[in-house]
Structures are given as C-alpha cells and as structure tokens.
Specification:
By secondary structure, the protein is mainly beta. The chain has no helices and 11 strands. It is globular, with a radius of gyration of 13 Å. The termini are far apart.
Length: about 130
C-alpha cells in the first residue's frame, strides 16, 4: 500500500520555525520524486519543495527559497521540511506528495498538483503576525 503521513504542523508566531515530517510507505525514493505542496484558502495548491528521485537534487519555489529546507532520511523512509523565518503568508495546509512521472523541478511550478500520484492527508500550519 502506498501511503504518506504528515506530522509536525501547528501554530507559530511570525519569525518562528516548524519542522514537518512525512512518513512514506510503499514509496521508493529512487522512483518517486517526493516533497511538499501547500494550499491556502481560496488558492490553488502550490508546489514548494521536492527532492528528485534521480540523484536527490532539491528544488524550491521562489516563495520559500532561503527559508525552507527539504531533507530525507532514506533509512526511515521519511522526508522533512524545515521551515524557518515563517511569515503569515505561509499559513496553509501542507501536503506531502509523491510523483514518479513529472520531473522534480517542474513540481514546484504552475499547476503541477494536477499530476501528482500520491498525496498525504495534510497538516495545518498557522503563522500569526
């Protein structure tokens, strides 16, 4: 069974940090690009960071570059998203995602969410000003 399960969301003040975790089962990290989307009320789901299945390169949306860091622990089949210097506009539901067909750099662009094969259930992040 393919499954992604997020944890680590919560409430934080602007400037603070959170670390999200995504525990993956049935998802081979050398087959699937794995990473994170987020969705704020009234907005489309936005790809924010992915690790490539081919070599582990990391990609970030411009909106989070320099503040968020994605990493993985292959032994634990877990992907992390360290979020620093959080802003109120980072408030969203964050979804872990896995996709084997679309190249990782494209997953942080446009409406790539339409092509994602596997989704987690989401974890909510609220950043107060």
């Amino acid at each position: 069974e393919v499954r992604l399960e997020e944890s680590g969301g919560g409430f934080v003040q602007a400037g603070g940090s959170l670390r999200l975790s995504c525990a993956a089962s049935g998802v081979a990290f050398d087959v699937y690009n794995i990473g994170w989307f987020r969705q704020s009320p009234g907005k489309e789901r936005e790809g924010i960071s992915f690790i490539s299945s081919a070599g582990g390169s990391k990609y970030y949306a411009d909106s989070v570059k320099g503040r968020f860091t994605i990493s993985s622990d292959n032994a634990k089949n877990t992907v992390y998203l360290q979020m620093n210097n959080l802003k109120p506009e980072d408030t969203a539901v964050y979804f872990c995602a896995a996709e084997s067909r679309v190249p990782a750099p494209l997953l942080v662009l446009g409406d790539s969410y339409r092509h994602v094969e596997v989704w987690g259930q989401g974890t909510e992040v609220t950043v107060s000003s």
